[in-house]
Write a structure and sequence with these properties.
- By secondary structure, this protein is of the alpha/beta class.
- The chain is built from 16 helices and 21 strands.
- It is elongated, with a radius of gyration of 32 Å.
- This is DUF927 domain-containing protein.
- It comes from Lacrimispora amygdalina.
- InterPro entries: DUF927.
Length: 545
């Protein structure tokens, strides 16, 4: 449904005193909108008109000042309609006239300071630090870390509706006996810790057939922070990588959803996963040949897919396995049944935006944000040490443990301060299992690279044993590219890597070096079928004496 954004003036707005407006059934509601970052102010007015049936219509937000009412009269001719009034002049009552516009101007000249101030932000979400005062705050459905203030219902802001306890109740209901759901909700709570400490983003993909509850649970995760379908916190893989990075820009501790990999045209997720986890967009030159600002983010990113994202990655998957956590789910892993799914949808659509900012407020109350998050870092380091002691000592497991320890810490804080019923023992075992599964997958795809001497020996032995004399010359072998590609993989190298190694040792030179299929040579080889010489792509390897 298309939404027409207009300010809520039922609260935190002043009805401008006006005899003309009273006579014409008009309310001129005004407030000051103030940028929380720049401290710039603007006076905003929304005019409400009531008809004979007491039905109300409201204008858009009108930015005004004393000298320029922004074409105020264009909204309704009644705003400039003269209304008879009685005024006192020298203690004598005199008849006169006034208009809504005249009364508004008078108010702006004399009583502007009576207007309530609404703060707003319009860049990113999550943590912000004032470099002058060193104070931090968190921009979400409300502002955490600052004194009591009125937050404007600005179109950029995250949204809040309903009641927090209803969200917590439904979270506890769906988490009982379902550790995958516990992990996902804890990951949503972990986002502000990633943002606070500038940690590289955690990417979690839920993989499973349709109707398993993936979208329902992911929207519940987003509802901790805002409306489940908030376009500021979600998009699909249909967008380009640049568009996705633009959405992630300045997301410092609020989770993001990239739903349904099947909607996109991405044939290989390797590069986009690397870039998203790294938290930086590519620098690009603008028309002035200057590098545009690079987008940055630190958060937790959810994704949903029917097929594994690993199926659309480079053959060497060990890099992406270090950066992407994938949960394989089946029927019943996330939700009990369709009835529960409908209940989750209903509650999350009516109650949202409370739990996430409530969690952040607790971080402030506990002093975990003081001194550049010193106590938060201490808590996390303890959690990381405990988890790392229970996984293998290799770099991959230790690295994943450092990230997933953030999820466990968030779950423990959620239990203590929000009443969320995570099962820490079960969740810890689940995290250890995720690390072990990832380690196993990496072992399955890693082939140790052979050293140069071994590679050269095996390539030459292959050429001597498998190639006929057409491919052998006195000082070199001309190995067909399709054969060399197989040897390259068997020796543990990615495409082109063995060619580069041989080139550095001076046993290969290449005449073709352009494009993705470069680093080869073209020679003419006589066909055994018709005796005609034809061009053939080969890797030319020099024979060493």
């Amino acid at each position: 449904m298309k939404r027409i954004k207009k300010s809520n003036v039922k609260t935190n707005a002043l009805i401008i005193p006006s005899q003309a407006a009273d006579a014409l059934n008009i309310d001129m509601c005004a407030f000051i909108r103030k940028d929380i970052n720049t401290l710039k102010e603007s006076v905003v007015c929304a005019v409400q008109f009531r008809n004979e049936n007491s039905e109300v219509t409201q204008t858009e937000d009108i930015v005004i000042n004393e000298s320029d009412l922004g074409g105020f009269e264009k909204y309704d001719t009644r705003l400039k309609q003269r209304v008879p009034i009685n005024v006192m002049i020298d203690n004598e009552e005199t008849k006169s006239t006034t208009t809504c516009i005249k009364d508004l101007k008078k108010f702006l000249r004399s009583d502007l300071n009576k207007l309530p101030i609404r703060m707003y932000y319009d860049k990113g979400y999550g943590w912000t630090k004032d470099e002058v005062t060193s104070k931090v705050r968190f921009d979400g459905a409300s502002i955490a870390g600052m004194n009591e203030m009125i937050l404007d219902d600005h179109e950029h802001h995250l949204l809040r509706e309903g009641e927090q306890f209803k969200t917590i109740e439904i979270c506890n209901e769906v988490m009982r006996g379902r550790v995958s759901t516990q992990f996902l909700l804890a990951t949503s709570l972990a986002a502000p810790i990633f943002g606070a400490l500038d940690l590289k983003s955690l990417i979690v993909n839920i993989c499973g057939l349709s109707s398993q509850g993936k979208s329902t649970i992911l929207k519940l995760c987003i509802s901790l922070w805002s409306r489940p379908d908030d376009e500021h916190l979600s998009t699909t893989w249909y967008n380009t990588e640049n568009a996705i990075c633009a959405r992630l820009n300045n997301l410092e501790g609020v989770p993001f959803l990239l739903d349904d990999t099947s909607q996109g045209n991405t044939k290989n997720f390797t590069n986009v996963v690397y870039n998203i986890e790294d938290g930086k967009s590519k620098g690009r030159l603008n028309k002035l040949f200057l590098v545009d600002n690079v987008a940055t983010w630190h958060t937790c990113i959810f994704s949903g897919s029917e097929n594994s994202m690993y199926d659309k990655t480079d053959e060497d998957k060990k890099g992406i396995l270090r950066r992407l956590i994938e949960l394989d789910v089946a029927q019943g892993d996330l939700l009990k049944d369709e009835i529960q799914a409908q209940k989750v949808d209903k509650i999350s659509n009516e109650n949202y935006g409370h739990v996430g900012i409530g969690f952040v407020n607790k971080l402030f109350e506990m002093g975990l944000t003081d001194n550049n998050f010193e106590r938060l870092i201490t808590h996390l380091e303890k959690e990381q040490a405990e988890l790392q002691n229970n996984v293998h000592s290799n770099g991959v497991s230790k690295g994943l443990a450092k990230k997933l320890a953030v999820v466990l810490l968030a779950a423990k804080l959620g239990i203590e301060h929000l009443g969320l019923e995570f099962d820490i023992d079960e969740l810890t075992e689940y995290v250890q299992t995720l690390i072990a599964k990832t380690e196993l997958k990496i072992k399955q795809v890693i082939i140790d690279k052979k050293d140069f001497d071994t590679c050269y020996k095996e390539v030459c032995e292959f050429a001597e044993e498998k190639l006929d004399d057409r491919y052998k010359e006195e000082t070199k072998y001309n190995i067909p590219v399709e054969y060399f590609n197989i040897i390259e993989r068997q020796l543990g190298y990615n495409f082109k890597e063995l060619r580069v190694l041989f080139m550095r040792h001076g046993i290969c030179t290449f005449s073709n070096t352009d494009g993705d299929k470069g680093l080869d040579n073209t020679v003419r080889i006589m066909s055994l079928e018709d005796g005609v010489t034809k061009p053939k792509k080969v890797i030319t390897v020099t024979k060493m004496k």
